[in-house]
Amino acid sequence: MSDYEKPVVETSTEEGYDRWSKIYDGEDNPLVTLETRHFGALLGEVKDLKVLDVGCGTGRHSLELAAAGADVTAIDFSTGMLKQAKAKEKSGAEGIVFRQQDIQSRLEFADGIFDRVICCLVLDHIEKLELLFSEMRRVCRIDGEVVISVMHPAIMLTGAKARFTDPDTGAVTYPESVPNQVSDYVMAAVQAGLTIEHISEHLVDEELIAKSERARRYLGWPLLLLMKLRP
Question: How do residues 20-31 score in pLDDT, each as one tens digit?
Fold first, then answer.
């Protein structure tokens, strides 16, 4: 049965990601595949740095950063995602500080204690962008960096949004999203007092399709937006 033939359900963001957590790591996700191609080079060396992973999900970035020698703290509001992130079979998870927190409120950390703050594939679910960008700036060292990735707003013109097929119900499930634009991300960063050092858009190409056939329908469309910001 194709996705077009399955029942469709919309959920709150938290409920959706709790359900998605059961299959997230093993799913064919072209957005994650494309981000993996570019994100590491943008973030750079992290050995011996204190890193905050905002909206860590199942810990895919946290685990890689810890393996690279970073001191990682990871936060998320989804109980299901954090449970998967802390799974015993995930090598290195025991060395990461995982905390449950709603990132649409004030972050529970002191000022300027992290060398790097990352927020990956989260912002299309965030309504209070100015608050989150301000908080990421606050907890980042003055000589640190804030690095973000997000689904490119243009792809939403095709009808694409974060979605998955619920393994329990078989329904195509859409966690609540917010139709933020590129300008919203830029203005949130600027108004938070962050300087934009890097911004780039990444399209669906044949290299991505070779790894994720699901991406074929979006060939030529911008799928990923990356930003590196400095306090």
Answer: 999 999 899 999
